[in-house]
Records
---
Amino acid sequence: MRLGLRDRITVVVMVAVPLALVVGLVWLPSICTVLLSFTRWNGIGGLDTIEWVGTTNYVNVFTNYPPFQPAMEHNVLWLVVLFGLATPFGMFMAVLLDKEVKGGRFYQTAMYLPVVLSLALIGFIWQLFYSRDQGLLNNVLGTSVDWYGDSKVNIWAVLIASSWRHVGYIMLLYLAGLKGVDPSLREAASMDGASEVSTFFRIVFPVLRPINIIVLVITVIESLRAFDLVWVINKGRNGLELISALVTQNVVGEASRIGFGSALATIMLVISLVFITIYLATVMREEEQ
Amino acid sequence: MSRPRSEAEYLARLIPPSASATSFGRRSLLKGALGAGAALALPGALAACGSSSSGAAKSSSAGGAAAAPSGTLKVGSNYSDDVPKKAMQAEADAFKAANSGVTVNINTVDHNTFQENINNYLQGKPDDVFTWFAGYRMRFFAAQGLASDLSDVWGKLTGFSDAFKKASTGDDGKQYFVPIYNYPWAVFYRPSLWKEKGYTVPKTLDEFKTLGAQMKKDGIAPIAFADKDGWPAMGTFDIINMRVNGYQFHVDLMAGKKTWNGPEVKKVFDVWTELLPLHQSDSLGRTWQEAAQSLQQKKSGMYLLGSFVAQQVDNGKDLDFFPFPEIDPAIGADAIDAPIDGFMLAAKPSNKDAAKAFLTFLGGKEAGAIWAKSDPSNVLANSEADTSTYTDLQKKSAEIISQAKSIAQFLDRDTRPDFASTVMIPQLQAFIKDPKSVSTVLDQIESQKKSIFVS
């Protein structure tokens, strides 16, 4: 069938506009970041002040930048905690709320509330709990733990705050998925005498595969882009180093080490690409089936 | 290069050799012919220019030029703490009262945020007039064309010493900055507590340590300390460095000319390591305001900080200070950090006339008096300003600054910001966290310094 002129214009517009947006807002900045990572620039003055330095920035990141290693470790730790604790807990909450327990709406709202709040606000709320001299925790427990200042403790304190929010997010996503499960599947399972637990793990969980993948991807994304909380607390220093915070410190701050910061951003991009590739591969395979 | 013997001499050194009158290199002679040499002739030329073109302005304290400024004037302010915020508002109100045609909009941004976003701020659409500091960054912005020449404003200003004028001068010999005040860094304490406990001001490091030990015995944290924001520890480093190695070493170290892992800096950290047990513990989770509160509540005995600490402690009542004690008799105790704060004009102000009128006003003696009244923790830059409202603390601050033979700005104002913020803050925190790691810390600073001080 041949398309009419009108249809052809529609198709061209529908392809061109999103393409321009993706190229302009995603590809161009990414490529610029990668290019800048091979330069030295203080971000002031025209493009002619950019100096090409090859891989110097990368060498410096890996060998001559003490905050880098802890930042990598913290990003991994973030992922492990969200994936191993917060996400399963959120899913568990969703399963419970799916049972139409009394006051389910209330719990649902309460759990989801932190997601609505900005992370900057969450940082402030938890500051009220964690402040060493004036905080609630130390006053109630009678301790003098330096929750935000002690680099052995603060990452965990922050992870709790971050998980608090993440649980609500996952809970809502999963709850939506659970509502969509065909009730006849469960009926059949109970007719066959399957227990609640095995019904969930053998029937509901596999049926929710698309949701599971979304939850997984969101968990990964959340742990890679974790930033706001540590930035609000201490600008991502002293035990709260994260790659994203280091990028910001170098690029956005007074420092303006654009090239060096771009190298850090590129490293983050590469790590993200690994996960994005896995995700896309899975989604595409699904579509083929 | 010997140590400078006066503030003026120190400030003269802030001007790079290419622009200073004392250097006679081949290149500097060439450049000198072009305009950098104007540094020599400039003060005279400016004075002449000022008296001829703006005789009226001198008599009019509000600094209005012939044509009355009008319209809206935008002022970017980093005075986010209560006390200076009110002072800034008082300045704007006074200016408005004298220039009814002008509306002054103050855009106040959190102090640290303002400083961290300054590059983007200045390259975007900055306010006409903005708050800033003297030092490396001021000259850098001027050189990059991110600030406007204020030579004509300076032509109308009176009452500033040469030292302040030099501190307001960019690399090209023109003025880019109008100072309002400066303040000393010293060891603050509450006399009532000291009187009660019978403490006396220590003159040497040993006396200082003995006093600290006594305070500890009395159940008081000897030295209040906070470094969550990263910069307060720089003040501690600066002062110990200037006591151990002297002022000139500070200048050279900040310029990247000395090594950080050499014996000189090592010695600074040795002294600091000995003093650390006297500091409040858990400093990395505490802000300076919280530490100041502990001084206020007499839970700690002393606090090494800028005199802005007075804002947090009873508005400066029952507060006194002494210069950090001598460590090496050969070096003495006559160098201090006394940073200068003030105002700059954006590169392309939307209301240039009103902006310049406001800057002239801010540099005048009335503005000084207004500031002194609202914020009793600083020392006015303009010597003609009315100092009758000075508190004892201000009088003493003025005295200590005038007595100091060498005056530094501050670590993060005297060196490159990329080095200060991405290297020094984390490394000093690493040292505070684990003082035993000092040699690793210093090696890391030195190797990062080499990667940064290349351009």
---
Amino acid sequence: MAAKTTMRTSALGARAAGYLFIVPPVIYLGVFMFWPLARQMWMSLTNTTLARPNDGVFVGLANYARLLETPAFYASLRITVVYASLAVLLGVTLGVVSALAINRPFRGRAVVRGILLFGWAVPNVAAALIWLWMFNERSGVFNKMLLGMGFSRLRWLTSIDWSLPSILIVTVWQVAPFVMLVTLAALQSVPEEVREAARVDGADPLNVFRNVTWPHILPSVQLAALLVAVWSIRRFDIIYLLTGGGPLGSTSTLVVKIRQTAFEAHELGIASAYGAVGLLLALLVAGIHNLVDRRRMRWVAER
Amino acid sequence: MSALSLILGFLRAILVLVLVAVAGFPIYWMATTAFSDPGQLYASGQVPWPQPQYFGALVAELEGLPVGRWMLNTLFVATGTTVVSLLLGSLAGYALSRFRFHGRGVVGFLLFMTQVVPEALILVPLYAMFVALGLLNNLLGLVLANAAFSLPVATFIVKGAIDAIPYEIEESALIDNCPRIGVLTMIVLPLIAPSLAAAAVIAFFAGWNEYLFASTFLMNRTLWPASVGLASFIGQYETPLSAVMGTALLFSLPAITFFLVIQRRIVSGLTSGAVKG
Amino acid sequence: MPELVLDTVAKTFGDTQVIRSLSATVEDGEFLVLLGPSGCGKSTLLRMIAGLTEITAGEIRFDGKRANDWSPRERDVAFVFQSYALYPHMTVRGNIAFPLVMDAFRPWHHLPLVNGWMRRRRMKDPAIAARTDAIARQLELDPLIDRRPAGLSGGQRQRVALARALIRDPSIYLLDEPLSNLDARLRMQMRAEISSLHHKVGKTFVYVTHDQVEAMTMATRIIVLDKGEVQQIGTPDEIYHAPANTFVARFVGSPSMNLLTVDGEGAQLRISPSLSFAHGEAAPRAGRLVFGIRPEKLELRPPGEGPLPAEVVVVESLGAEIVVGCRLQAGGTRDHLIDHDLVFVRRPGNERPALGSPCSLSFAAGDVVWFDAVTGLRLKP
């Protein structure tokens, strides 16, 4: 057999031509992504305000020190972590369960699959509007149902106890379909021969799932979990439109805090510090994922 | 068939029904609300199915709103976002897949970084930059900001798709006298058309759905895309709820349609025939 | 017309030296086969000729002009890939006509829309269409002309790849293991077709393979490569009958040449302390040597009649001929079996000797090929 052509062996990938292709996108990202990001990070070390955005004075880590003295910061951090973890836990569970439920062909599967994807496909703002209406305290369909069943009304979005769970319901409705799609794709690629071999070896359906299917789809599920986690940390639209971070800050994740602090309290320095913490959190999640991934690769390689 | 698998099959059927009901209900309710008597919604109670006889009333209500204008703005922003991110994403994806150059690792890391940066985090500096560049209150500025976030996604998709194409096909084109850029435009890009379509739909609807930048950078009501227009209904009661839901439905339908269509197109083994595995 | 010269060409990837200082001349119109085991650098060499892989050191000359930095198109070569590398999104016609369409390509055709329009127009160009049809007919592809590669069988894809090479009428055809993805029957058929193609077009073919049968049947000249170095350059006959060293002797021929390490003492050759045999003539020199003989030059005789006592261990019948694997025996007793590779004998017919039966082997002194035991090089008689 001839050696397979690789980037190393082909004269296709000459160095100079590579720059020609990569430089325009890199410049673009530099201008519209990394320069603003760098400025924002710098701002977190100054006392810039919205009124005088260019007159910030360097204050070192004072903003972060102030953050650490503010109970609202800890609350926001806690809300972010709780919100993201539950979104991952519930979203991934529901997504994987849905995928397993519709993995086998049956009549009307395409339609079912389409309907299950609704939450993922609907734009955030439209989703916010319909959920606001369904959650409506006086005339919303959920409270109508509760009343019909003899319960009393719930203040879905306006009570401290229920606001975060309500937001989570919407979030899971949105992310579970994505997890389902990823899992379905992974399920399609489970080698049928290995499954059959396991069956021949006397494994019952649950054993086949545990020993063949699950290990095969795990990396995909894990990747989906990472994405859901990062998106939850980044998510702004839905939370802002449904509750605006309230009531009493009970749904104020770090990202919602950025905008509140910047445009309502006008303190750009503090807002940037909130953002830095959010970014750090997202990077942390991604880092953990990479670590787990590499561990597994090594484990697979060593066997 | 064993009893166990019969029971499992039955449970599965019930599970599927429940999932469909839960996932589909909000959209059903959106349609139901849109096609109903706006007067009834708050007062007596909602009829739990869509009533086609209110279609005329809905159209009349929508005509009173700048829905067409908003949709056009949305269309412009979404198209612009798609064009910019696909153009640049194809270049970056091709370069990352095929060329060895200094800083490949760095570029890869930067692209990864963009996926964890919250939009809200660069909002203020972008705002300041757009003030300076005169891009504030300008749909073009919105396009540029959106594309910065969808460009990396397009890059990943394009790179992944090109990675799957054997080098030999490109080398073959070079031998057949195809110019260097032609290899990209005539061989590689057509080959990854399904992936490009997927990337295009993703970028298009990232632009279509975007709210935070649009609500911050655009002050003029006539420049608003539909996302901002829709959000402006929240907390105000002059617009009948049926019209609000009608607009939301109009706004959602293209997104739903396209997302449902491409979930199939992503998986397409066009290359499988050309090279024996 | 063109003469292709490789002058001390070398290639390194990082720390690995794939080809070390290789020189050869490819003459006009010949069918040159690069033969060697996998990893010997033969594909890399072919890619260097095509301009697909850069040359680390040395020089490649087309008609005396240094061509190291020429692009593939400037070299006027056609390349048939092992994987065929067809364009999956084009029909058979599109694939075959592509080189001609590209020859007519102008920079402004890069503009979007113009590009597709112009390529469609070119395909309809009478000259191009006629030539495409002619080539397709020649390779019996005309019924498949509007299909895409995904709808073709392996043999049909192979033909499309050949057609795409043919249409440009290049000065050199480069083929990289083009038959390795085909089944045995098709491989034989395509072998004959490629050979007749070579006769018809009369251009230079450089053909890479690890299959010595392909090399022997198709080549006018063979370069045997191993570990990035030329082992021998010669016609198939020379390679077969006068291998330059033990590597070539072992690599070419199936079963390969029998090689025995012996100590020569005049006409007496000692294989082991207990086994020595008489050779018709004196060995080319005294001392340790490698004695080589082709299986078909050995004769299977009843015990005692030939100089080499042996025992039948393996019998493979191939229908028209039979291959017998023997183990040499010391002193005619079974207890002193000599630890040695099997010695193979090939003979026509299908008369099968019994397994385990004693026998002896004889040979003509003139058929023996001698090698140096240390360097492995052939000793000139």
